[in-house]
Write a structure and sequence with these properties.
Length: 300
């Protein structure tokens, strides 16, 4: 029998209950002369929390990008805590987009910060594997306590191949070697639906890589960023899904948070809710076509 893991259980239950793969990325852009990051009349916390609450019926998780909060100093960190608390009240899975990874003692502190019980503690976090296994071990200890990880494997940015696609001795690419280690780390933590709480980040902008990643990590939950503003389609975003429709969750950030900028007179929350509902439907339609199983995730 699979071992229990609270993170995997919550993801699978939410995906089935809401018939959704969608994840809301909380990326409050920094203010610029032609594009304010926070709408007029809003505080950072009010803006982000309104988006979370409005999208909650359509998404299974939120993924706050820590850099956009850290860049705003103490006010930003207070807002981050409020956003995480709001997501918890809405029953959403929380994923700290931290991309941390350092020497053992430092990683242990990061794991405590983002996977512990404090104000910034989330259900899962993104981690960078390039310092090696000892940087990952403190996070694995949190997996044993019911948390989840998403290891950067093949990222969505245009220059990701500069290092990740390098050919390595013995054959294959560097990102494929990382995927193999993720599969190994996760093999002892198989939970609900045969999924592991040690997942991977694979950009939706690289659907062929996502399909290859699924073959290398058959039990991983793959977090797919890049949908929406970065150009990936719904078909691209579900490329790494299993035949049962599980194993993939899809993030969109700016296309949801800033949907109001494309709808005259719409409030941030109303526009984000409409965009999240459309995202959910598009992903489900693509998933149905791909799996040819009408009940795998649902029609939305």
């Amino acid at each position: 029998m699979p071992a229990g893991n609270e993170f995997v259980d919550r993801v699978v239950e939410a995906q089935r209950a809401k018939q959704s793969l969608a994840v809301l990325g909380i990326d409050p852009q920094l203010d610029a002369p032609d594009a304010p990051g926070v709408p007029r009349g809003y505080t950072l916390a009010r803006f982000c929390c309104e988006i979370v609450e409005a999208c909650a019926p359509h998404v299974i998780a939120v993924k706050p990008q820590l850099a956009f909060f850290e860049a705003r100093g103490l006010d930003g960190l207070r807002a981050l805590a409020e956003v995480i608390a709001a997501a918890r009240r809405c029953g959403l899975v929380t994923i700290a987009d931290a991309k941390r990874g350092d020497i053992g003692s430092t990683s242990a502190a990061y794991a405590q910060a983002f996977l512990g019980g404090g104000e910034f503690g989330c259900d899962a976090a993104t981690v960078n594997p390039y310092l090696g296994s000892d940087a990952i071990m403190p996070f694995l200890a949190r997996v044993r306590a019911g948390r989840g990880l998403f290891v950067l494997v093949k990222t969505s940015n245009p220059s990701s191949g500069e290092f990740q696609d390098l050919e390595i001795v013995g054959g294959g690419k560097l990102w494929e070697r990382v995927a193999g280690r993720v599969n190994g780390w996760g093999s002892e933590f198989i939970a609900a639906a045969g999924l592991s709480p040690i997942g991977a980040v694979v950009g939706a902008t690289y659907p062929d890589h996502a399909r290859r990643a699924r073959s290398l990590m058959p039990r991983a939950i793959i977090l797919m960023p890049g949908y929406g503003a970065q150009g990936a389609s719904a078909d691209d975003a579900v490329a790494g899904a299993r035949e049962d429709g599980l194993g993939v969750i899809v993030n969109a950030s700016r296309s949801l948070m800033y949907a109001y900028t494309k709808e005259t007179g719409a409030s941030p929350g109303a526009a984000a809710s409409k965009a999240a509902a459309a995202m959910r439907r598009a992903l489900n339609d693509s998933l149905r076509r791909r799996t040819k199983q009408s009940g795998a995730v649902g029609t939305g």
